[in-house]
Amino acid sequence: MGTLLSNSFLLALFMLMFSVINSEGFPPTLEPICGPTHPLDAIPIYPDDVHLLQFALNLEHLEADFFLYGALGYGLDRVAPELVMGGPPPIGAQKANLDELVNRIIEEFGYQEVGHLRAIKTTVGGFPRPLMNLSACNFAAIMNDAFGYPLDPPFDPYANSLNFMLASYVIPYVGLTGYVGANPFIKGWKTKRLLAGLLGVESGQDAVIRTYLYERADYTVYPYEYTVAEFTERISELRNELGMCGIKDEGICVPPYLGAENQTTSNVLSADYNSLSYARTPREILRIVYGTGNEHVPGGFFPNGANGKIARELLHYYKS
Which residue positions does the secretion signal occupy (predicted)? Predict the structure, then answer.
């Protein structure tokens, strides 16, 4: 009898304590709180956000088809044809002669870019894939410009894993700096979240590419007399020259005054004096990817110019 009364007393005490806890505002459940994900009174998308994020589609399309073709031998037309939106197929894209490790990395990158395209187009809308030149001849021309004379034989990005990773060094980093540059101009919570997610993965891709190349920094790129480090240095110098807005690009090895805290010559991640990512504007990006140093004059990766309001308005000055 005494045990029964004791148990009844403990049960009553427990129920009393539980009711007091609830009355003090504690949640009646042990489920974790996972929100809010944004300010409740915030605007999701501002009109000015749309064109900046749509501009990024040009680079995302470029990366998607380059990576997909390099790893799989086919591109967006087969993997996600709805994202092409009737745009023309890329010029000269092909399967690269990759080892198993690099093929897996590049295949993953390719599918990531498909997700990026879908995320942008479903959030702010989009436009058809622009005409893109992913031919070996175009990459050879870029390398010739980087070294200041024609390489012999012409550089072939699809010849082997190292060449493909050097060619990959040419593209994603430009998009990365574009996202950093767009950040101060993005206002909506939904578009901010989109940009942050895109920037995170693009930065990761660039880090993987740069780490792969840094591990091989002293390798000679056959059949040339230049090392991997020298290739990255020349490519970065070319992009700085075309961008025309100072140093925003650095190779995988740098003099100490460009290293982290002026202490390192390794440069696995390209960054400024405070180790923050460099930023570029759409005009700078177009000067680089056109290869002309002029945002009004198309060429390079985009023979007919990039798509979207920002790029087409700048192109209008060239045609008028």
Answer: 1-25
Vertex 252 angle, CA 276 and 101, to 5°: 110
Q: Which are the contacts of 51, defined by CB distance < 8 A and separation ≥ 6?
A: 308, 309, 310
Q: CA dihedral in degrees (63, 285, 53, 317; nearest 10)?
A: -120
* pLDDT tens per residue, range 130-152: 999 999 999 999 999 999 999 99
Give the model's pLDDT for residue 21.
47
DSSP secondary structure, 127-176, as one string:
-PPPP-B--HHHHHHHHHHHHTS--SSPP-TTSSHHHHHHHHHHSHHHHH
Q: What angle is formed at CA 17 by the lines to CA 14 and CA 22, rounded to 5 degrees? A: 125
Q: Which of 297, 291, 292, 293 is nearest to 311 (CA)?
A: 297
Tens-place pLDDT, residues 173-221? 999 999 999 999 999 999 999 999 999 999 999 999 999 999 999 999 9
Residue 58 lies in a domain: yes
Asked whether residue 25 is domain-assigned, the answer is no
How many structural domains are present in the chain? 1
Decide if 127 is inside a domain: yes
pLDDT for 38: 87
pTM: 0.89
Sign of torsion over alpha carbons 65, 315, 303, 240 = negative
Distance CA(244)–CA(23), nearest Å, equals: 64
DSSP structure class, residue 211: H
Task: Return d(Cα 195, Cα 47) in angstroms, integer.
Answer: 15
51 falls within a domain: yes
What are the residue ranges of helices labelled H in 24-158? 47-55, 57-72, 76-79, 100-124, 136-147
Q: Which two tokens stand for residue 189?
A: 């919570």
